[in-house]
Amino acid sequence: MTDRIVKVALGDRAYDIRVGGGLLARAGEHVAPLLHRRFAVVVTDENVAARHLDTLKRALALQNVGCETVILPPGESQKSYAGFERLCEALLALKVERRDHVIALGGGVIGDLVGFAASVLRRGMDFIQIPTSLLAQVDSSVGGKTAINSRQGKNLIGAFHQPRLVLADVDLLDTLPPRELRAGYAEVVKYGLIGDAPFFGWLEENGAKLLVGDRALRTEAVAHACAHKARVVAADEREQGERALLNLGHTFGHALEAETGYSQRLLHGEGVAVGMALAFRLSAQLGLCDAALAPRIERHLAAAGLPARLADVDGAGGFTAEHLVAHMQQDKKVRDGRLVFILAAAIGQAMQRDDVPPAAVAALLGEQLAAAA
Ligand code: NAD
Ligand code: ZN
């Protein structure tokens, strides 16, 4: 099977996203031509290192690329000042030079942290993304957003720093915990819902087979999602307009993540799944779209093993609409004090709105919570 190549058209910072199976073992062929000297540092986490680091090291060695490795503990807590400091010091201790490349081998945590470190180390180094989770392959590795978290909120300290290359090997998903795989799938569904009704139909047809491991379908879905995000990023790199549509489901989702304490009770993609269905319910309530769409979306998400309704969220019985709306008002998508929502006129026709009355949101949440009780 040949790789799929998606181009991210950003002028002199343009790069390729290569998607396919067995790519990690061939990584050296694609990495070596970018390097100024035959050396790179690979940063990964313990879970990924145990399963995939040797394959990458062998692939680099085949092209005579020497490498050093930094292996971090897994988890979101690495995206902190302390984690950032540890990584920068580790990289400097390995004597990275300004023209060297750092390779981020891991999920979105590794990608965001390594990307941010690369953006400032020696005033800016190049980096390569080898995303290993579905979320990272279809979302976080594409588009150049990098960040760590602040006590004030997630991803508040960061930079736009584009990678030089993204290698998405869909076979790496075989070792991803199934719940993480499904959570990443919610972001795949998102692309269909915001701007691509045929793709949503394709997912209704093929989603189940893709989740159980069909390599060709996975490649197709990841490449399609990356192509969508690449188009959006090329048109709106710094999220002044269209890029904001990628936040479908995220205003609700972040409120749910905050309410569940950013814990294993609700993964990010799970919050997005519930949030996307709520966004379609809100759209219907405001008269923007057909009321039959939210149930159709919920059916697809539930069939994929994702939570689709508020009632599916662990502890939903204890949530209140007031608390959830208060979380939304803390969100970084609040603009001039107004809540910003991505709503839709149909599947594939999303729009940004900042005129949704908070009372309408509270009413919808109240009704959904009553159904959960
Ligand atoms: P993650 O990096 O924590 O990975 C999830 C878990 O899966 C971890 O335990 C990890 O060790 C493990 N794992 C990853 N790949 C594996 C594999 N192939 N086999 C076995 N285990 C594997 O989380 P994530 O969901 O990949 O990413 C979430 C992060 O991404 C968040 O910090 C979020 O803020 C960020 N994010 C960034 C962007 C962006 O545009 N930069 C977009 C979306 C999300
Ligand atoms: Zn997301």
Structural write-up:
With 373 residues, this protein is an alpha/beta fold. It has two domains: 4-175, Rossmann fold (3-Layer(aba) Sandwich), CATH 3.40.50.1970; 178-372, Dehydroquinate synthase-like, alpha domain. The protein contains 13 helices and eleven strands. It has helices spanning 27-31, 46-62, 81-93, 108-120, 134-140, 178-195, 197-212, 215-235, 250-259, 268-285, 293-303, 321-330, 358-372; strands at 4-8, 15-20, 39-45, 66-72, 101-106, 126-131, 145-150, 153-160, 165-169, 341-346, 349-353. The strands form three sheets. Strands 1-2-9-6-5-3-4 form a seven-stranded mixed β-sheet, sandwiched between helices. Helix 4 links the parallel strand 5 (101-106) and strand 6 (126-131). Helix 3 crosses helix 4 (108-120) and helix 10 runs antiparallel to helix 11 (293-303). The longest helix has 21 residues, at 215-235. The protein is globular and about 60 Å long. The model has no long low-confidence stretch (mean pLDDT 96). Bound molecules: nicotinamide-adenine-dinucleotide (NAD) and zinc ion. Nicotinamide-adenine-dinucleotide binds next to helix 2, helix 4, helix 5 and strand 8.
